[in-house]
Structure formats: C-alpha cells, structure tokens
Amino acid sequence: METIDDTRKTTAGPKPKRYVIDLTVNGDPRTVVVKGNALLVNVLRDELDLTGTKKGCELGDCGSCTVLLDGIPVDACLVLALEADGCDIVTIEGVAAHGELDRLQATFVDKAAVQCGYCTPGMILSAKALLTKNPHPTEPEIRAAIAGNLCRCTGYVNIVKAIAAAAEIETAATESGEAR
Amino acid sequence: MSETVKQDHAVIGKSVPKIDGREKVTGAARYTADLKFPNMLFGKILTSPFAHARIISIDTSEAEKIPGVRAVITHKDAPTLKYGISPARWDENIFCIDTVKFVGDKVAAVACIDEQTCYKALAAIKVEYEELPAVLDPLHATDEDQPQIHPEFVRNINAEIHQDFGDVEAAFKDAHYVRTDTFVGNRTYQTPIEPHTATSMWDGEKLTVYSSTQSPHYFQYYIAREFGLPMGDVRVLKTYVGGGFGGKLEPTGLEFGGAILAKITGRPVKMFYDRAEMFAHNRGRHRQYMTITSGVDKDGKILGVHADFVMDGGAYTSLGIATAYYAGAMLTLTYEFDNFRFDMLRVYTNLPACGAQRGHGAPQPRYAFEAHLDNIAKDLDIDPMDIRILNARRPNTTTPNEFLVNSCEMKACLEKAREISGWDEKKGNLPKGRGIGVATGSFVSGAGYPIYRTDLPHAAAMIKVGEDGTAATLYTGATDIGQGSDTVLCQMAAEAMGYTYEQMKIVAADTETTPHDFGAYASRQTLMSGAAVKQAGEEVKAQMLEIAAEMLDFPAVDLDIREGKVFSPGNASVTLTFEEVARHFFVNRGPLVGKGSYTPPKLGGKFKGAAVGTSPAYSFAAQVSEVEIDEETGEINVLDVWDVHDCGTVINPALLEAQVHGALFMGLGESIWEEVKFDDKGRILNPNLSEYRIPTAVDMPVVHSALVDSYEPAGPWGVKEVGEGATLPTMGCFRNAIFDAMGVSINSLPLGYEKVWRALKERREEGPAE
Ligand code: FES
Ligand code: FES
C-alpha cells in the first residue's frame, strides 16, 4: 500500500498520514486516498457516491451498512477502509446486472418485503451471501442469516418469504394471509 | 354484510407491487442523508450532559478558531419564540436559554466542512453549568418539594384531564362485581432504522429544507412561524423516509438549527442525529401508570369504567397533550359501556420528551384494560373470549365520549379469531407451560381535527394526465414513510380515473409542488388522502367522458372508462383508448387535470378535549396468541399470533398484511423487551440497538392474519385504517396468554423474562395455589 507522507505541519500538529488503497467495487477498479481512520462505509457513500449502503447506527448493531467483502457479509461501519485494500466489494448497486433485477431483488418486490426500504440493501446482501453459500437453506437458516439486519417495518415475515422464494424453498412457518 | 363489499374493482383490491419497490431494492432510492449539495457543510448539535442545570456561560471562541469550522451558534443567534407541536403548550426553545431540562437538551450547534471537524468543534465549546436537582420520578413530580421544571407549569403538571360520562358511581353501585387493577407501562422509542436528517439551504429569503419527515406541512408551518416567514417562502420536502412511527412528526433542532446555520454561512447545511442522539431526542412512547376500576353484572357485561392515569411526559410537551387525551379516549371503543370516567395527569420530568408512537397514547391503556378484563373474567369464571364477545361494540353506535362508530365488526373479529386459532380446543387443554390469550384494539382512521387550529382541508390531491395520455402523475402531500401510501394512492387514482396502476407516476410530500396534506400520522392517509385522490380521479374521468362523448358522438352517460379503455357497457363496438381521448383533450382544451380535497365532517362532543379521538371511522382488531413459558428461566416464547382485522375495504392486500406484521412486531418488542432505561442522573443507559432490544428475525412468531368483511361508509370505496390499530391488542394479548399459561399476572411492561421468573418464584414461595 502506498502511503502519502506529508511532513508539513498544521496548527494542530503533524498532518495525519494518507493511504492510497485499491478496491474493486461492483467490478469497477477504484483507487481512493484515505486517512487511517476512514471507515469503509463512508468511503463507499461519500467518496464513491454509492449511497445505497445505509447507516443506521455506525456501531455494528443494525446491519444497514452490510456489504460483501470478498463474498462475506460485513458491517461496513466496522471495517476500516485500509482493511479493504485489495478486496472485492459488492454493494447493493452491484446486485442487479445490466438493469435486470437479481432474483432476490425481484422476490423482495414481489413478496412486499420492502416497506421504508432502509434495511433492504443490507438485507439483500446478507441474503445473497447466504444463498451463494447455501442455495437451499432451511427457514431457521434464513432467519439466522439475517438476524444481524434489523428491520423496524416488516416484522421480517415477508423478508423471510422473499428469501425463501428466491431459494425456491417452502416455508411453512411464514404461512399467513388467510385473507378473507 | 353490505352489498357494496362485492363491488367489482379494476385496480384497487389487488396486491400490485410497490411503486418504489425497484428503486428501493437496487439502492437507487435516495434518503435525506444520501443527498449532496454543492458547497454543503455538516452540522451537529451540542447537547446538555445534565438532566437539569442552569447555564452560567457559553464560550464558543475556541471552537470558532478550529480550521474548518464555519459557524457556531447558541440561543443568542436563534429566535427566542417558543415552539412545540401542540399549540396548547409551546414550551421549547431552539437552544436553551437559562436552563437545560434533560440530558440531550439543545445548547449550541456548529457547521463545519466535515463531520470530524464538527466533533472537534463541539468538544471545544465551553459551557459552564450549575447543576440543579432533577425530577426523575414521574410519580413524585407533582410533590411540593420537587424542583420546578417550567416556571409557568406549577407542580410540573403539563396537562390535567378529568372527563366524566354517564354515572360511574351509580354503575359501580349496581354492579355485581367491581374490581380495581394497577398497571405500569414502559418508555419505548420508535427506533426507525433511518436516523433523522435535515439539509437546509437558503436562496435569498427562501428556505428549503429536505427532511426525513412524516409531515412536510407541519414542518413548514412551524418553521415558518419560528422564523417569521410566509409559508410560501419555506419549502419542506422529503425524499424517501426510512420509517417514522410517530418519531418524525415534529420539527427538531436539525431543522431549526440547520436553517440558522445555513443562513449564517450562506451554504447548505446537513444536520443529522446519530443513534444515541435519536434516543435522546426521543418523542417515543410515554410510560403510563394506569389504575382501572370496572363494574360488571353477573354475566360479565361492563357497566362502568374508571381510568385513573399518570403519564411521564419528559421535559417538553411534544405531542403529549393529544397523547394524554388519547390514552383514555380510545378505551371506550372496542367494548360497549355507558359510564366512563377518565382522570389523567401528564407530568413534566427531566427526561427526554415523549410524543406519539404508533397507536399514540392508546396501546398501554389497552394492555391495562385487556389484562384487567381477564382478571375479571377469571374471578367470575367466564371464558375470556366470551366476556369480550358479550361486550363487543356493534356497528352504528356511539361511545360514551361521543365518538360515532359506523362500521364495526368487533364481534366478527373475535369470532373469527376464536375459530382460526382453535381457541375452544386449546383453552384449558394446553400442555403445562403453554397458554393462550386474547385482546382487542381499535384505532382512528385519521384525526377528526388537525394538530393546530386551521380550516384548511385535511387532504388535497391533483392529477395531471400527460399530453399523450400514456402517463398520469398524482400530486399529493401525503407522505409515504414506508407504509406504502404512494402505491395505495396511485391505485386509488387509477381506479377513479379508469386508468391502469402501471401508468401512474407520483410526486408526493413537497410543500411547493404538491397540494396540501397533513401527512402521515393518526393512520389518516388511506381514508383522508384517499378521499381527495378519488375526487381528483373522478374529475379527470368526468372530463374524459365528456370529450369521448363528442369524439364518438355518443351520450356520455352511456360511456365508462376502465383500465385505460373507454367503452359503452351496452355497445361493444363503441371503444376508444384512454390515450386517444386524453390526447384529443389536450390538443383541444389544454392540460387535463383533476383535483380533489377532503375535510372530515364536524365530529365529537362539546366537552373539554372532545376533539381528540374523533375520526370519520375506526378500525377494529382481535388478536389471539399462544405462548410457551420456560418455568426455569421465565423465558417467553411466542409461538403463534392470529390477528383478525376489520379495516374496511382493502386497497392492497399484500401491503395491508405487511402493516399488520410490522405493527405486531413492534407490539412484540414493546411487550417483551423494549425499554429505555436511565441512571440516577437521568442519562440513558441503553441508547443503542444492542442494549435497546428490538426484535430480530429469529424472534418473530408465526403470524396468521385474517380479515372480516366490512365496508366503511365514511371512507372512499369503504376503506379505513390498519397501520396503527394492529399494535394495540398485542401487549395485552401476550400478558393474557402468560396469565393463562402460568396463572401469574405481569402488571408492568415490558413483560420480560425476569418478571415472569420472579412472579413464578414468588408464587412458589407462597406455597401451592390453585
Ligand atoms: S450502520 Fe453499520 S451496523 Fe448499523
Ligand atoms: S423496511 Fe423499514 S427498516 Fe426494513
């Protein structure tokens, strides 16, 4: 990793070091210059304008900032940008290919799994990681995979249904809607 | 049931996908915090570390010297006019002047070139305080020796309510059985996943504020008032909002402070709360202390009820006057009784201000009443389901506090819940440790009166059909905060116009481009905004028919439009497309526009507070839940919940069901885990999402939701609310299921594993019972 060492002094003391990092984000090669304490979530949102990644707590509690780091779902608010140097990152903007919704995105719309939508990007990425690893999960496996993604609107019922539909599995326990 | 239920609709009644679904699943949807403006600054608020303290001095000079700090402001830079959302009690200042009244009260604010510099600047502001004794216990807030929080509110009484209907004393005297119970609620927080954000900017004398708001209108009104601006010079708009649940109904320091910072710096300023600041700003659910006495006859018929409550309002009024009235007013809805007395004290404390959370003041009293009713049923050896069916409100009745109830399928909801939950097979026959409980709820479909006094219509809408008729845009001030109003209103517009949902576009919740609407609160939009939209759609349709009649040389009365086709029901050869007619209209007459507005009828009685709780229509619901209790640990495992709703005609069944899930889930959290806790200095102990425990995906029970047929004459196409009503029965329902399982009554919220464990332990120590 290249470091930009700036020896000039500022009134507040020596200038902090800057680092040049290389990321692959949704397939695009990106080079950014960051401070040592820069968080991945802020680099994605503020530097790369990928605001689909949300911030709900900045403490690793809500999962809104979930992205895939070399295929693993992580809370981007807990990852230093430096740690992501050389990594492959997928954000929600990279899930649909060529304007075609990914199957999970389509089932989220279909099953009314989206309300305010704030948790949705993180949810979809957690689900994506699950289905990549385990294409036919059980319902408890689905629930466990999104247990770190908080949603305040849906009660998770339709989210679980959407993930199950994308995985083409039956979920007895989410059966509902005996409407009329 | 009503004939009209069977109406054949083309667009409404269908689970069309949400209009914003694609944007939200691709990450394209922009929320306020995602917006960037050229030259934008970042702003933060400095808040009080003390629950109650006098401000001796504020020194901002060091902060101002930090490179990158563009403005530092205090009360000296702000209007001193007090504000609040309840006009009866404007008691907040943009920045505190003499005293701070809770940990988190606003003291100063900064605008800087980036977020990091904001924190440096905040740390460099020197505030000297003289700490004062604080009022932290609401039950003692009115004691003579307690410090006074607001000089103008003697003994810290923010609101005092005494309402008396019928003759409660006589009812108790005539009663076969009278029982009193006391319950305590919990302080909970709405916890939307999106933190509040507001970005303010000026263009000369005009202020524009992008905000994560539930009501651009109230924001516009109160911001204009505070700064002495004409409303026309204040534009408030939202992009997407990441949930509100009542917490984003009133303007905050982010809007007021941001406007001042933007004015001083001449640059857009983005202000935002972090999660801990959201908890401190609060405006969540009031903790209520509820004593209820009821008298019943020997069959369990309720003769009279006395509700005697105290609620902890926190340091400011917020929407709390309405909350205080709602707490009692909504108790009269689900069961019929003639005699009702309601006493309430809303007290100030040096804690974060409470406001309107989903269900407003009603859920905790509902929990208390449903628990109390089960106690009575048990004492009289009546099945809890039977006592509810016996007392269930009937349609076309009036409550003792003069709410007119049109459609009401309370009894049908209970009967259906009984059937689908297998109540009769389960009650008394469940294995050890398992129990089943039932509770009811009812909520307004929009408040009968606005928050401040005005004769503006409650909702208005405008539809503009494109020049070639291939698209139509609905302009509405209604505010979609996730519940799906944009979708539902577009369905309604298309239905009324004879158009298709797929061709609808929407512009919503922007005070400059969209017609006035009060926004998202009190479950009002489907009925009220919907009524305005229907009228606008019908106006488009009428104009279309008139010109189609000319084009076809056919009487307009024999023509109809449906799903984009103009046709004659009696003559199959007569047909035109919507596009052809709309284009012809535009070419010959100019823009094709329809408009509508809605004002509810005059509602309610003449007594003090009569307006609160009035509504054109009320939803009703019954819930049954089955729980399993671990006797060793007290763990509460909710296995199944059956929710049966009477919400009138359904516009979008999938979205409606999703509302039920969400409301139930919020009720589940509040019932079992959620509670904002404080230390003995009034500091929040759990202002984060790991220690303030909202349910996760592994906590949800199996949800079965069902509807009963109903048609509401006061609503467009017979609609009424669902979004809040489903929160109401849940807490009482779980309490009653635990009561059934273990025979112990948990008299405070959250019900909590530890409380169950302690109650079981206590009972064991008292020796074998029953
Ligand atoms: S913002 Fe990263 S987990 Fe909440
Ligand atoms: S849809 Fe609103 S937080 Fe999940």
What descriptive keywords fit this protein?
heterodimer, A: 180 residues, alpha+beta, Ubiquitin-like (UB roll), DNA polymerase, domain 1, 2 domains, six-stranded mixed sheet, two-stranded antiparallel sheet, 26% helix, 19% strand, disordered C terminus, B: 770 residues, Aldehyde Oxidoreductase, domain 4, Aldehyde Oxidoreductase, domain 3, 3 domains, seven-stranded mixed sheet, five-stranded mixed sheet, 18 helices, 28 strands, binds FE2/S2 (inorganic) cluster
Can you put this structure into words, describing what you see?
- The complex is a heterodimer of chains A (180) and B (770).
- Chain A is α+β, with helices and mostly antiparallel strands and 180 residues long.
- In chain A, 26% of the residues lie in helices and 19% in strands.
- In chain A, strands 1, 4, 5, 6, 7 and 8 form a 6-stranded mixed sheet that branches. In chain A, strands 2-3 form a two-stranded antiparallel sheet.
- In chain A, β2 and β3 (13-14) form a beta hairpin.
- Mean pLDDT of chain A is 91; it is low at 172-180.
- The two termini of chain B are 45 Å apart.
- Chain B has 18 helices and 28 strands.
- The model of chain B is unreliable at 1-5 (pLDDT under 50).
- At the A-B interface, α2, α3, α4 and α5 of A face α1, α16 and β28 of B.
- One FE2/S2 (inorganic) cluster sits between chains A (114-120, 151-154) and B (193, 243, 482).
